[in-house]
Amino acid sequence: MKILIIGATGQTGRCVIQSALDAGHEVTAFARHTESLNELDDQIEIITGDAISTPELEKAMTGKDAVISTLGRGKSTRAHNLFTRAAVSIVNAANHTEVKRLIWMSSFGVGETFKDANVAQKVAYSTMLRNIYTNKADAERIIRLSHLNWTIVYPSALTNGNLTGEYQIGEHLRMSGAPRISRADVADCMINLLKDDEWIHRGIEITN
């Protein structure tokens, strides 16, 4: 399968690249600053571009079978409308290029998943993360209203741990304590979702 990975230079994006290569997919990495991917230029296609630009996404998306977005704001607590603007551009570019499959990485606690969070999580999500989570929720409404075969992935707190292949997934998971999930496991899940039609037009929570 030919996959476009948006946000490919982030920590999770790098894990998705590796997981996709391990699974035998053809990978195109898309990000604003791609210098850190140069050591992979013999294994993947690298395209420099902006995820809020429909024309740039169209060029990158042409001929692809699926799109995976791992866009994030790093340690910032402000979204600056990144997720809504990217969602609009991704949906438009996908429509123009006839790409149907989209896997969009969100965060546990966004939208309806807030109900599944524990008390400590709800405090964090509604205070210091409120701006980012609100923008992510708005972006998801754009995706859910699209004609794409979308799946939205909601990981609990991300770590840089190793791939375990042992994680919980479901539409609703009751969280307790301080749930974590490695980026490698999230990447593994997203790549597996490419061949799993069960989760099309559904959200999936994931944690260890």
What does this structure look like?
- This protein has 208 residues and is α/β, with parallel strands linked by helices.
- It has a single domain, classed as NAD(P)-binding Rossmann-like Domain (Rossmann fold), CATH 3.40.50.
- Helix content is 34%, strand content 22%.
- It contains six helices and ten strands, in the order E-H-E-E-H-E-H-E-H-H-E-E-E-E-H-E.
- The protein has helices at 11-22, 54-61, 82-97, 119-126, 130-144, 183-193, and strands at residues 2-6, 26-31, 45-48, 66-69, 101-105, 149-155, 157-159, 168-170, 180-182, 202-207.
- It has an eight-stranded mixed beta sheet, with helices on both faces. A two-stranded parallel sheet has the order 7-9.
- Helix 1 links the parallel strand 1 and strand 2 (26-31).
- Helix 1 (11-22) crosses helix 6, helix 2 crosses helix 3 (82-97) and helix 3 packs parallel to helix 5 (130-144).
- The two termini are 28 Å apart.
- The model has no long low-confidence stretch (mean pLDDT 96).
